[in-house]
Amino acid sequence: MAIQIDPWSDSIPQDYAKLMEDFGIKSFEKIAEKTPDPSHLMRRKIIFGHRDFERILKAIKKENDYVVMTGLMPSGRMHLGHKLVVDELIWYQDHDAKIYLCVADLESHITREISLQEAREAAINEYLTNFQALGLNLEECNLYFQSQSDVVQKLAHTLGNKVNFSELKAIYGFGGDSNVSHIFYPMIDVADILHPQLEEFEGPTPSIVPVGIDQDPHLRLARDVARRSENDYGFILPSSTYHRLMPGLTGGKMSSSKPKSAIFLTDSIEEVEKKVADAITGGGHTVEEQKKEGGSPDECIIYSLYVYHLMPDDEELLELRKACESGKLICGDCKKKAIKFLNKFLKNHKKNRKSVKKKIGKIIEDHS
Amino acid sequence: MAIQIDPWSDSIPQDYAKLMEDFGIKSFEKIAEKTPDPSHLMRRKIIFGHRDFERILKAIKKENDYVVMTGLMPSGRMHLGHKLVVDELIWYQDHDAKIYLCVADLESHITREISLQEAREAAINEYLTNFQALGLNLEECNLYFQSQSDVVQKLAHTLGNKVNFSELKAIYGFGGDSNVSHIFYPMIDVADILHPQLEEFEGPTPSIVPVGIDQDPHLRLARDVARRSENDYGFILPSSTYHRLMPGLTGGKMSSSKPKSAIFLTDSIEEVEKKVADAITGGGHTVEEQKKEGGSPDECIIYSLYVYHLMPDDEELLELRKACESGKLICGDCKKKAIKFLNKFLKNHKKNRKSVKKKIGKIIEDHS
C-alpha cells in the first residue's frame, strides 16, 4: 500500500523517496542548480521535490508574470516550522512574483473547530504580524480571508461538481462518519489554488504553491481538477515545491499542539533555553565518547535548527558540521551557541513585531 | 421501506398519508379552522400538512414577530406550480410576517449545472419579476442571492461540522458517485433556513418554511441540526407547511422540463388553448356518457386548475363541482371556461410584469 499523506495529522512521513516515487514528485536537486540565486532552503535540499518548477523558472528568467499561492491556517502559535513558508515567500517576492496569500480561516474552523472570529484574531495578531515582521511585504501581497471570498466559494461549488465522494475518500480516507464540511473542504482549497488564474484576476498564468509534503493531497486534487476544467477556464496546471517538515525538538514534527517540540516566534529567552537544553541531539552518551567518536549532525535536531534557520551561510555551516563530526564541538557548547543565535533572532523579531503591530490593522483594512 | 422523497426528482409522491405518518407531519385540516382568514390553499387542503404551525398561529394572533423563509431556484420558466408559494407568501405578508426570500442560485448551479450568471438573470427577469407582478411586495422582503451571502456560507460550514456523510446518505441517497458540491449543498439549504435566527438578524424567532412536500428532507435536516446547535445559537425549531404538488396537464407533476405539462406565467393565448385542449380530464368517454354519468372532478386536471388558482371563491367552485358531477357541465365547455379564466389572468399578469420590469433592477440593487 502507498504511504498515505494526511495534511491533518501530526505524523511525519519517514520515507520521502518512496513518496516521491508513488506520487510522481521530481527531485529538486538538479533544478536548484539552474535556479538563479537559490535560497538556503533550495541549496540544502530542505526543498527536496517539485512538480513543474521548470515553468516557474522560465517565468523568472524571462521576467514573465507568475503567481505564488499559499495559505496560512490560523491555529495556535507560530513556530519555526511555519517560518519556512515565509522564507520561501520572501524569496519569491524578491524574484518579482505576484503573491496570493489566503488566510484559511475556514480550514481552522472546520478541521480544528476554532470560531471564525478567533481564527481572524489569531491570523492578524499572530500570523500576519509575524509574516510582516519576518520581512514579507504584505502590502504587495494579494491577501484575503477564505470565509470572505465570494469568488473562492463560488469556484469551489463549481469545481466540486466535477469531483465525487469516492475520489475524496481515496485521497483523504473520508468515511461515513466524516463530517460534511470536512468532506467539502478540499474543494475550497482547490479553489484557493486555482482562483488567481480566473479572468477577473490574472487569467491563465504559471503559478506555484510552495508547501510541506503533508499538503500534497490538495495539490494532486487541484491539478486533477484543473485538467478536468481546462475547457472551461484554460487553467495552467499549478506547479508546486515540497519542503521537508521541520523536525521537532522532542522528535516527530514541530507542532504547536506539542509546545515542547517547538520554538515559537514569541518564546521568551527562558523558554528557549529550557527547550534547547531538553532537545534531542546526535551526540555520544558521554562527553568523552563524543570527543573520541564525534557527533552525528544528521540525527541532531539542534543541527537542523542551524540548517533550516540559524546559519544561512553555507561555509559557516560546513565548518560547524566538521567540528561536530570530528568531536571538536560537543553538544553542550553547540546548544549554547544555538541559544545565542536563537535569542538574537527572537529579540530582533520582537522588535520588528512591535513596529509592525502599528500598521497591520491598516494593511488588513486595505485588503478588505 | 419508507417512501423516499427526493426534492431533485420529477416524480410525484402518491401517498401523502403514508408520508405524513412516516415523517411525523401533522394534518393541516384542524389548524386551518383556527387560522384567521385562511387562504384558499388552506381551506382546500392544498396545504395539507405541517410541523409546529401552532407556534406561527400564536405569533400571528398575538401580533408577535415571526419569519417566513423561502427560496426560489432559478431554472427554466415559472409555471402555475411555482405560483403556489407566491400565493402563500402574499398571505403571510398580509399577516405581518418578515419574509426572507433566498435566490437559490447555488442550487441551480450545483443540481442543474446552470452558470451563476444565467441563474442570476433567470432569477431577476423570470422569477422575481413574476413574484412582484403576482402581488408580492419584494421591497418589504429580505431578499438575497445564496452565492453572495457570506453569512449563509459561513453558517453552512459551521453547521456542517455536526452532520456526517452517513446521515446525508440516508436522507438523500448519496453514494460514492455523488459529486461533492451536491453532497454539501443540503448544509447551505439548512443555513438558509436557520440564518434569520442569528443574532445579527432577528435572533431566535418563530419561523416557517412553506414548501412542497418534496422539500421535506431539507426541513427534517434543518430541524435536526437546529436541535444539535441549540446550545450555540438557541434556534427555535423552524415550523413548516406542506402543499400538494400542482398536477401537470399531462399527468405527473407540473414541471418546466415538460412544457406540455405546465401553464407558464408567460404563455401566449394560443399555447394555453392548445395545452388545455390536450389536458387530461375526469370526463366520460363520450359526451352522452358524461351527461348521463357525470364527471369526476377529483381525477380532472382542469378542475385542479380551478381549485389551485382560477376560482378563489368557494361557493363558485362548489357550484362548478356540482355541475360537473351531475353531468350538466361537460368537459369541452369547462375547458373553454378555464381558457377564458386563464387568459384573463395571464393578460393581467403580462401587464403587471411590464410595469414591474421598470423597477425590478432598483429593487435588486437596494437588496445588494
Automatic annotation (TrEMBL), chains A, B:
<feature type="short sequence motif" description="'HIGH' region">
    <location>
        <begin position="74"/>
        <end position="82"/>
    </location>
</feature>
<dbReference type="GO" id="GO:0005737">
    <property type="term" value="C:cytoplasm"/>
</dbReference>
<keyword id="KW-0963">Cytoplasm</keyword>
<dbReference type="InterPro" id="IPR002306">
    <property type="entry name" value="Trp-tRNA-ligase"/>
</dbReference>
<dbReference type="GO" id="GO:0005524">
    <property type="term" value="F:ATP binding"/>
</dbReference>
<protein>
    <recommendedName>
        <fullName>Tryptophan--tRNA ligase</fullName>
        <ecNumber>6.1.1.2</ecNumber>
    </recommendedName>
</protein>
<keyword id="KW-0648">Protein biosynthesis</keyword>
<keyword id="KW-0030">Aminoacyl-tRNA synthetase</keyword>
<feature type="short sequence motif" description="'KMSKS' region">
    <location>
        <begin position="253"/>
        <end position="257"/>
    </location>
</feature>
<dbReference type="InterPro" id="IPR014729">
    <property type="entry name" value="Rossmann-like_a/b/a_fold"/>
</dbReference>
<comment type="similarity">
    <text>Belongs to the class-I aminoacyl-tRNA synthetase family.</text>
</comment>
<keyword id="KW-0067">ATP-binding</keyword>
<keyword id="KW-0436">Ligase</keyword>
<dbReference type="GO" id="GO:0006436">
    <property type="term" value="P:tryptophanyl-tRNA aminoacylation"/>
</dbReference>
<keyword id="KW-0547">Nucleotide-binding</keyword>
<dbReference type="InterPro" id="IPR020653">
    <property type="entry name" value="Tryptophan-tRNA-ligase_arc"/>
</dbReference>
<dbReference type="InterPro" id="IPR002305">
    <property type="entry name" value="aa-tRNA-synth_Ic"/>
</dbReference>
<dbReference type="Pfam" id="PF00579">
    <property type="entry name" value="tRNA-synt_1b"/>
</dbReference>
<dbReference type="GO" id="GO:0004830">
    <property type="term" value="F:tryptophan-tRNA ligase activity"/>
</dbReference>
<comment type="function">
    <text>Catalyzes the attachment of tryptophan to tRNA(Trp).</text>
</comment>
